[in-house]
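Retry 2 of 3 after timeout on previous attempt. Resubmitting structure tokens to design endpoint.
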């Protein structure tokens, strides 16, 4: 097991608990609705969920009529997903940078929900997804916003008031370390240009970019999302093969 894998293995029990029992406002309120919109009608579609974790989003797509293959490098995540899988879901341990076990042109939709920032070689993942999508197939990517992965921490005054987010070393593609749920996780910062040009170089057409925020009504219920009206934490891409 390499360092990246063992970090995620440490994180896995906390992650599964949070996804299944936590409030999870970022996903339920801010990210799922626009991502589901970008996916469109998934009824009878063959879908691959790359870096599916414990299967939360795969279950949503399965419940909406898709046939879903969830892939994750963590065996613990995959076992958790399998333990409550619906009839249209299948899960497999795999590194999504190499999908050679999947046939060319075999999926209608691929989803990468906060996974490319974890990959040392996101461009290899992108090329593999292009290969396994049918012509006209869609790749929906949710990622950390490059503005936030470029340091991205708040600069605060003496009273702790948030003044602004720090952006630095934006142009350097490099590893960054974050503490999430008590575990230090390594992920990878890349500029917007690096991401978008890799998508275009792989052969995709870029159809949409979204920087999801939260509405004032949602903020009343979920005040913990207040940062999201100031600086986007996430970015969504819809690509077409
Ligand atoms: C931030 S979590 C997102 C999980 C899920 N998509 C969700 O939104 O709940 C990232 C996931 O990517 C997985 N992962 C990291 N590197 C991977 C790789 N090279 N291949 C497959 N999965 C990977 C981790 O094990 C983890 O489950």
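Retry 2 succeeded. Sequence:
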């Amino acid at each position: 097991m390499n360092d990246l894998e063992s970090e995620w293995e440490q994180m896995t029990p906390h992650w599964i608990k949070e996804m299944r029992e936590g409030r999870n406002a970022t996903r339920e309120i801010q990210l799922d609705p626009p991502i589901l919109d970008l996916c469109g009608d998934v009824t009878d579609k063959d879908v691959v969920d790359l870096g599916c974790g414990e299967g939360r989003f795969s279950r949503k797509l399965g419940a909406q009529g898709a046939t879903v293959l969830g892939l994750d490098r963590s065996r613990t995540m995959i076992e958790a997903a399998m333990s409550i899988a619906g009839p249209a879901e299948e899960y497999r341990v795999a590194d999504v940078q190499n999908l050679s076990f999947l046939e060319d042109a075999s999926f209608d939709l691929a989803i990468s929900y906060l996974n490319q920032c974890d990959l040392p070689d996101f461009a290899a993942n992108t090329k593999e997804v292009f290969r396994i999508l049918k012509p006209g197939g869609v790749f929906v990517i949710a990622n950390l916003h490059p503005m936030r992965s470029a340091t991205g921490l708040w600069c605060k005054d003496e009273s702790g008031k948030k003044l602004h987010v720090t952006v630095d070393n934006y142009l350097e593609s490099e590893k960054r370390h974050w503490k999430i749920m008590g575990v230090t996780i390594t992920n990878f910062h890349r500029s917007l240009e690096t991401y978008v040009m890799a998508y275009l170089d792989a052969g995709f057409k870029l159809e949409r970019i979204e920087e999801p925020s939260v509405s004032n009504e949602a903020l009343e219920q979920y005040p913990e999302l207040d940062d999201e009206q100031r600086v986007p934490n996430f970015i969504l891409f819809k690509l077409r093969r």
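Attempt log closed. The mean pLDDT is 94.
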